[in-house]
Write a structure and sequence with these properties.
The chain is 25% helix and 25% strand. The protein has helices spanning 35-49, 56-66, 175-187, 271-278, 319-326, 337-349, 386-391, 414-434, 456-470, 481-485, 497-511, and strands at 88-91, 103-109, 124-130, 139-147, 152-158, 166-173, 192-201, 207-216, 232-236, 243-247, 257-265, 282-287, 300-303, 306-309, 330-335, 356-357, 362-368, 378-379, 399-403, 439-443, 476-478, 514-517, 520-523. Helix 8 (414-434) runs parallel beside helix 9. This is NXPE C-terminal domain-containing protein.
């Protein structure tokens, strides 16, 4: 996280920053790509990624990161899929008591609805260790799930607190349901559509208005259903070169597009697919003793509603400390409604006048990310791409830029999302070259979605792409995945205030590793830089 803050690589050389990605276990070739796919992959790279300097090797590493195991047989009925009721887990080498800091291992055995053991992987499980509900003493931590690719899954926890706990394992999607998600992402991306509102002068001083359907222009994955030829108005951003397309209005010119909004959802699942998607969503629990997570690195745990990070030294900021931390800073926040939760927290926390704290010279800005955006009716002129916003900022030691990108892209092909992320990456690298003291923070995706329009599995895939693109760039990646997944509160893509406050504490610890009081500066050792 943020390695080499002063060493920013050249924007057009990505290959040197991909060496840290490891090949998946039990995989003889990257992401299952064989020689037959090589020509197709090279063509794709040449057409989409060449401007970013991405080689075939880089592209294959990305495929490794998002690879997910498939069933090894044809699924003829839903009963062949993983059954949450029949699936079991055991705690390996269970002891009467444990020391904090020890590891706890759990093995999950997947079974189908016939109670037969599964022989292949690909199920999407989430696991956590938590206390039973006791007011003011809630504790929980996320578990690292490893697919053994044979119907078994190994879960690892670290034990961070003293007391009793339960192991909870949840089947989010069976491997068979994941295939449904994949298919609809690859063939049915227009299942989420948008409205474009055209307005203009009519006869006798009247006003004309039309509402039409809009979406991304990608010409595959179902997005070509909008039409061809002269069917549509196209709006190509001169900097990103991405194209937004709307059906051509009957009585107004293309230049009359004024507003944008969410249009609607099309659920094209077959009855069998619906049953596969709904067949999971079960929690199995078993009491243990005391325990923590391990995901590549332990992220942290909740105790008494306070998140303790294992990644960096964090503090818990009062209103006064927040104002001191943000004093003399320009804060630019860009993204979706989950990022706006942070913005709204600061608006309430920091006494301000039109998002400007005059006394402390805190300048706070919010901007929703560009299209596609599932939102209420809003002016098109207010929707700016993140990369364009960053390109328009000078940067500097008093500027903090934070953004997120994910939930509004879950239905689109991975190549589209990757292209958007790489455009932002190029803008960030250029910013850090001209102003290396600028603080850039990327917020990862939240958990909470479980359907065909926004599953956690979709979000996890996007999260892997984001990390792949920004590794070793010199930015902070604030990982909130585990923070939103393991808290005891009701699942929600917009987490409760307790979780938001803990996220903000980590955010401020990134921004202010040094706090000055009464002309004395204290550097927190092991801070988040």
């Amino acid at each position: 996280m943020g390695n080499g803050r002063k060493k920013h690589p050249s924007p057009n050389i990505l290959s040197q920053h991909c060496a840290g990605l490891q090949k998946p276990l039990n995989s003889s070739s990257p992401a299952g790509i064989n020689s037959k796919d090589s020509e197709k992959s090279q063509s794709l790279i040449n057409s989409i990624y060449s401007e970013f300097g991405i080689s075939l090797e880089d592209y294959l590493r990305l495929q490794e990161a998002v690879h997910w195991a498939d069933p090894d047989r044809s699924i003829t009925n839903v009963s062949m899929s993983t059954s949450p009721a029949h699936t079991t887990f055991i705690i390996e080498n269970l002891k009467k008591s444990y020391q904090t800091g020890e590891k706890l291992f759990v093995t999950v055995h997947a079974k189908d609805f016939y109670n037969k053991s599964k022989s292949y992987g690909g199920d999407f499980f989430q696991a956590k260790l938590c206390t039973e509900y006791v007011p003011l003493s809630q504790a929980s931590v996320f578990g690292d799930v490893k697919d053994m690719l044979n119907g078994s899954y190994s879960v690892c926890f670290l034990l961070p607190w003293v007391g009793e706990a339960q192991v909870a394992v949840r089947l989010i999607h069976s491997s068979e349901a994941v295939q449904v998600l994949k298919r609809h992402r690859d063939t049915d991306s227009d299942r989420v559509y948008f409205n474009g509102y055209y307005e203009g002068p009519g006869p006798s001083k009247t006003r004309l208005s039309e509402t039409v359907m809009c979406n991304v222009k990608w010409d595959k994955n179902g997005l070509e259903h909008m039409g061809t030829g002269d069917c549509c108005c196209e709006y190509k951003d001169p900097h990103t070169e991405e194209i937004w397309r709307c059906q051509r209005p009957k009585s107004l010119p293309c230049s009359a597009l004024v507003y944008h909004s969410m249009g609607g959802y099309r659920n094209r699942l077959t009855e069998k697919e619906k049953k596969l998607i709904d067949a999971g969503k079960c929690v199995a629990q078993k009491r243990g003793t005391d325990v923590l997570t391990l995901r590549q690195f332990p992220a942290g745990f909740y105790l008494n509603d306070v998140w303790t990070s294992f990644v960096c030294s964090t503090r818990h900021f009062t209103t006064q400390m927040t104002s001191e931390c943000l004093k003399d800073k320009q804060i630019y926040m860009m993204g979706d409604s989950t990022m706006r939760q942070w913005f709204e927290f600061f608006v309430k926390e920091v006494p301000s006048e039109i998002n400007m704290d005059v006394e402390n010279n805190i300048d706070l800005h919010w901007r929703a990310h560009g299209l596609p955006l599932r939102t209420e009716k809003t002016a098109v002129a207010d929707l700016h791409y993140i990369s364009n916003e960053i390109n328009g900022l000078a940067g500097g030691p008093h500027m903090v830029i934070m953004f997120n990108l994910g939930p509004h892209f879950t239905t689109y092909p991975l190549d589209f999302y990757t292209h958007r992320v790489l455009i932002i990456r190029t803008a960030v690298l250029a910013l850090l070259q001209r102003a290396p003291d600028t603080t850039v923070i990327i917020k990862t995706v939240n958990t909470g979605y479980k359907d065909i329009f926004g599953s956690d599995w979709y979000s996890l895939q996007l999260d892997k792409i984001l990390r792949w693109a920004f590794q070793d760039v010199g930015v902070y990646i604030l990982d909130v995945w585990q923070m939103t997944a393991c808290h005891y509160s009701k699942e929600n893509i917009h987490p409760c205030p307790v979780i938001i406050k803990n996220e903000i504490d980590i955010l401020l610890s990134f921004i202010c590793p040094v706090m000055c009081r009464k002309n004395k500066c204290v550097l927190k050792t092991g801070h988040c830089s």
